[in-house]
Amino acid sequence: MPDMAHVGNRWSRHRRAEGGHRAKQGGRVGRSGWRGAHNAHASQPAGKSLETWEVPCEEVRNSDATLQLRSGIQMPRFGLGTWQSQRGGECKRAVAEALRAGYRLIDTAQAYGNEVDVGQALREARLHRNEVFIVTKLNSREHGGSHAAAALKTSLSRLQLDYVDLFLIHSPRGGFLLETWDSLIELRNAGLTRAVGVSNFGAQQLMSLQQAGRELPEVNQIELHCFWQQRETESLCNELGIALMAYSPLARGSLFGATPLAQLAQEKACSEAALCIRWAFQKGFIVIPKSVNPQRILANIAALRGPGLTPREMQGHADALGRGSQQGETRDYTWKPPPSHD
Fold first, then answer.
1. Residues 108, 115 contacting (CB under 8 angstroms)
2. Mapping DSSP to helix (H, G, I), strand (E, B) and coil, where does residue 81 land?
3. What positions does the domain NADP-dependent oxidoreductase occupy (predicted)?
4. At a CB cut-off of 8 Å and minimum separation 6, what does 246 contact?
5. What are 105-133's pLDDT values in tens digits?
């Protein structure tokens, strides 16, 4: 995939130390005439102008639900996943729709092949850079040595950004985990990413980092939903202070209508998808449902305002829905990488 040409008015870099501080409200018109939105989730570094990009939208509704990472950075607890969102327009439209709906977290990856689309949608958004939390992931073939630095710089070019908010090792399958993890720490210290973490890591890989005396990830992104709860990994992450980011929180809809969740949804007059989102959100996870359908994008964020689950219902989910996944609890790899997009 060819890189995007350099754009002069790129989003400016944000210092890690200011991750939890909110910007003063109020838009401004920058040198380019692009107008910014307000209520950013983090402040801009002193001496830096608030460069913004504009999107043809009316009102932006933003959820304030965030999770504080160990470093103090505030990370939105709800966002849009883009796995299998096709490049060339589909992904761009989905991200633009999500931003209009109030999503403030966008998750992508080098392996998805859609970072250019994400960058184009961001560029057209009437938002300050520090209002949107961007996550991308290191392709497994880029593990080891200096590969991670070059790969992240390519991602930044595609995204038209000076930094990402969170950079993850996409999968332990790439090997060279210690060398690769050390490279991510260096990239964070260099300001190319505000935080670093991992994806698809099971308890074994996390404990290996700990036993090697390395700084632990701030986030572990794994497949996580009420049908497959990964209790061993959840317990370890809670113990180690690693935030859990749940991808495929709807289990791709494959079990809708086939479990007690359908009856509960009927009783609460809502969809099974909404209950899946509420379950993951009430568990304290960062939730990133994927969709390219505008109605579903709106419905997914609306689930945060929908009926909550009682403690008894939450326990019922654990008992009735999670039981069937116990055989897979020790599985470390939950994701099969798609073909690479060059």
1. yes
2. strand
3. 79-306
4. 221, 222, 223, 224, 225, 280, 285, 286, 287, 288
5. 999 999 999 999 999 999 999 899 999 99
Count CB atoms within 10 A of the CB of residue 204: 13
Q: Which CATH class is domain 65-326?
A: alpha beta
Q: Nearest to residue 101, comparing CAs of 62, 68, 136?
A: 62
pTM of the model: 0.78
Residue with tokens 């985990």: 177
Cβ–Cβ under 8 Å, residues 137 and 169: yes
> 3-state DSSP call for residue 119?
helix
| CA 100 – CA 59 distance, rounded (Å) | 7
DSSP label of 16 = G
> How is the chain split into domains, by residue range?
65-326
Please name the amino acid found at residue 320: A
List % helix, strand, coil for the chain (3-state, nearest 5). 40, 15, 45
